[in-house]
């Protein structure tokens, strides 16, 4: 009886997590789209009469050292942060899944070579790896997407490969091979859809992580640079003000970043919890 | 004796991996774009100046010759000379590793303690209010940009309350601390320098808190998951139905099997901690390994990049080795 109640509790908690996470992300995405409507300043517009002005008055959240409006930069930055994170993870999923599918299904030397490369990638802390790749590729939005995708793709390759290897042994795969389906057909119709289950849970969590990486790189000057509007770059620009007690240049962008990443984390955790509950029952 | 043999065998297995890391880093930093010589000479240098500087660091020789020289140096413990500063990489490293290690070890230990207490507490209340609150807190911690958290702690702890020193340095220079290991707290204890100890401790408080909060979140989730697994196992159910005292049940049947997984978790978290340290050192001007490695990377300082990559890989290997040994000691089922 108690066990049943716990399961029901877990299910409703996972629904709360998923809904809250999704709601946060929808709000952030809408705010990003409606940025021109919600603020009267452009993201790179300079108000020369008001550098480091406090919140209130003409500037809702004050201005930074360059005299740029913090609130409007905050809104416009959501576009870049969400866009880069989501497209980087999408790229990582596509490349990683393709490699994992090939390695797991074909096996042999291709599998060996690919997995050794994955081993080398995973022998380093991911953020350190991202730093190294970003330092080599240089700034630019496209390069940042490539950097973050490159650091994440190996994990997807390993995940999908493991799934594929167990799916390959299942009878229905043999059945479709013996009934004359081509290798591509079997992979596309049967193996791929079934091997994506864990990817669906990991990808949202990964989007949050990608966002933190992007902001971390920008904070160190290796990502988006000012005047580009990005949360990490805004925090970086505002960091000297902290010692003087000026909070408005760095606290709001960090809070926005935290809330947005939390949205992805809640969504991922909820999906994970639901998958676990389903497996147990 | 068996333990020693295990450690020796593992260290031998590691040699080819490290050699691979050495070769790959050596080739990659040279093949990929970026020139360390141009960055030290500035825009007005002539081609002749550049050639002279290149010759001084042996960068004019063929790559295989440079690699052999580098290997020869490594064999005698010589990491080469930094192109940026012109001093020996080994002696710079000696100054930089201590402070970072102190930061990481203190934070990870603190995080482990918090994670075990909260994780087990949370698992025993699975899917009730307390458990849900702990899990939400862990998610918030997991979503936290560590560099921003550092700034917020400075804002509150230094600018607003004035309880902690300004984020510039690791110890008050007026305390005349004699550096021995570079880890200031340890140095203060070793030299019996009371004022330096208090000063180092107050400088450590905010960075350690920042790193611990970031590290505790993934640990907490894992501890909770493994405690939950133990609680749902048949062995634990059998022990409960035997009517054992709650204390025995908690210590012998829940904590021990949960703790067995901890070393592997701590090793995994080490990677996260190293990545975060780069950012946290930057925020607190910590002058540790992370900042040094970052500068080396930005200026393409070949010897510095090579040494820091090798050290990170070596650190990983050692941490996982320690984790395996501790696991074997804790878990009688593991034979090594």
Explain the overall architecture.
The complex is a heterodimer of chains A (281) and B (336). With 281 residues, chain A is mainly alpha-helical. Chain A has a domain at 72-265: MetI-like fold, CATH 1.10.3720.10. Helix content of chain A is 77%, strand content 0%. The model of chain A has no long low-confidence stretch (mean pLDDT 86). The model of chain B has no long low-confidence stretch (mean pLDDT 86). Chain B is 75% helix and 0% strand. The radius of gyration of chain B is 24 Å and the shape is globular. Chain B contains 14 helices and no strands. In chain B, helix 5 packs antiparallel against helix 6 and helix 5 (89-124) crosses helix 12. Chains A and B meet through helix 1, helix 5, helix 9, helix 10 and helix 11 of A and helix 1, helix 6, helix 7, helix 12 and helix 13 of B.
The string of secondary-structure elements of chain B, in order, is HHHHHHHHHHHHHH
Oligomer: heterodimer
Mean pLDDT of chain B: 86
CA-CA gap between termini of chain A: 14 Å
Helix content of chain A: over 70%
Q: What portion of residues of chain B belong to β-strands? A: under 5%
Strand proportion of chain A, as a percent range, falls in under 5%
N to C succession of SSEs of chain A: HHHHHHHHHHH
CATH architecture of the domain at 72-265 in chain A: Orthogonal Bundle
Structural category of chain A: mainly alpha
- Largest contact between protein chains? A-B, 44 and 47 residues
Indicate the mean pLDDT of chain A: 86
Q: What's the CATH H-level superfamily name of the domain at 99-291 in chain B?
A: MetI-like
Please name the CATH topology of the domain at 99-291 in chain B: MetI-like fold
The total beta strand count of chain A reads 0
CATH class of the domain at 99-291 in chain B: Mainly Alpha
Membrane topology (chain A): Multi-pass membrane protein
Organism (chain A): Phytohabitans maris
Domain ABC transmembrane type-1 (chain A): 78-268
Keywords (chain A): Cell membrane, Membrane, Transmembrane, Transmembrane helix, Transport
